[in-house]
Amino acid sequence: MILLGRSAEDFGHGYIDGLMDVLDRVVDKCVDECNMLGNASGEWSAKMFFE
Is residue 42 within 8 Å of residue 35, measured between CB atoms? Predict the structure, then answer.
């Protein structure tokens, strides 16, 4: 299948939008999990040293 003109442009925009949506979700999930792990590690360390 060969896309020409407007069809190729529409496909390109859709592809980029879809890719960015997925990457945004992946980054958000990583940030949330990293924050959760950091908080848990900090709390665990504090309990070890101050209890």
Answer: no
